[in-house]
Amino acid sequence: MSGKRVVGVQYDETKGVPVVILKGAHEAADAILANAAGHPEIPVVKSPRLTEQLYRTPIDAPVDRALFPAMAALLVHVVDVDARLQEDRR
């Protein structure tokens, strides 16, 4: 059995904050990651410490403000990777 955990986060414009939209552990985490692998528009970032902290957040709940700096760094990384992928496609 896998010891993986995954957390899906999405920015909610109506709330003005990132919100946890899905969570999974073990086999559910493997299934979520397999599904994401088939959708290149879904960025997957490995951050065990952040995942551990986000996993405590209920689904449909906003991310704790204390995690905003980590979420901002994650967003910068995702945007940078996306920009490089777009450049490679040209």
The main pleated sheet reads as: 2 strands, antiparallel
The share of residues in extended strands comes to 15-25%
Q: Can you write the helix and strand succession as a string?
A: EEHHH
* Helix content class: 40-55%
CA(first)-CA(last) distance: 41 Å
What is the total tally of β strands?
2
What is the count of distinct domains? 1
Proper CATH architecture: 3-Layer(aba) Sandwich
Class from secondary-structure proportions:
alpha+beta
Mean pLDDT: 89
The number of helices is: 3
CATH class categorisation: Alpha Beta
**At the third CATH level, what is the topology name?**
name from scop
* Shape estimate: globular
For the record, what is the CATH homologous superfamily label?
A: secretion proteins EscU
Strand neighbour order, sheet with most strands: 1-2
Radius of gyration: 14 Å
Q: Report the uncertain regions.
A: none
What key attributes describe this structure?
name from scop, 2 strands, single chain, globular, 90 residues, alpha+beta
Report on this structure:
- With 90 residues, the protein is of the alpha+beta class.
- It has one domain: secretion proteins EscU (name from scop, 3-Layer(aba) Sandwich).
- The protein is built from 3 helices and 2 strands, in the order ββααα.
- The chain has a two-stranded antiparallel sheet.
- The chain starts with a strand and ends with a helix.
- The mean pLDDT is 89.
Topology of this structure?
Layout: E1 5-12, E2 17-25, H1 27-37, H2 48-55, H3 68-89
Antiparallel strand pairs: 1-2
